[in-house]
Design brief:
Elements lengths: L8 E7 L2 E5 L2 H12 L3 E5 L1 H13 L5 H16 L1 H11 L14 H13 L1 H4 L5
Antiparallel strand pairs: 1-2, 1-3
Length: about 130
């Protein structure tokens, strides 16, 4: 059959009464051949699907200015030693560090947004 993109895929099939999960490229290719014959169910990788969904949400026009502002705040505290030191003192969290989100790790956007929201009262001190 035609060559498939099998990256970020897992496959499950029933072989001799036992369910088998294939995650290696070779195993998934074999199982996808079985899928063509109707003997296996191939599933997309849920983590990869989550990343694609998060990317769509992040690129949605409504969120762009919010995310831009969040990145400016996080960027400032990642490079300004005095500012992060003051934020740690105000929040009584001596090891606090702002996490800069990465597009390929969708959960980092949630963590970063949560950090900014959690620290919002302390961040107001820096606004003049």
């Amino acid at each position: 059959g035609p060559k498939r993109n099998t990256s970020h895929k897992a496959a499950i099939c029933n072989y001799c009464g036992k369910n088998i999960l294939g995650v290696s490229e070779q195993m998934v290719n074999h199982l996808c051949e079985c899928e063509d014959a109707g003997r296996v169910l191939c599933l997309p990788c849920m983590a990869h699907q989550g990343n694609l969904l998060a990317k769509d949400i992040i690129e949605f026009a409504y969120f762009k200015p919010i995310i831009k502002q969040m990145l400016i705040i996080i960027g400032h505290f990642r490079i300004a030693n005095l500012a992060i030191h003051k934020l740690r003192q105000l929040s009584d969290r001596p090891t606090f560090k702002m996490q800069y989100p990465t597009l390929t790790r969708w959960a980092t956007f949630a963590v970063s947004a949560s950090q900014v929201i959690t620290m919002k009262d302390y961040l107001k001190v820096f606004i003049k």
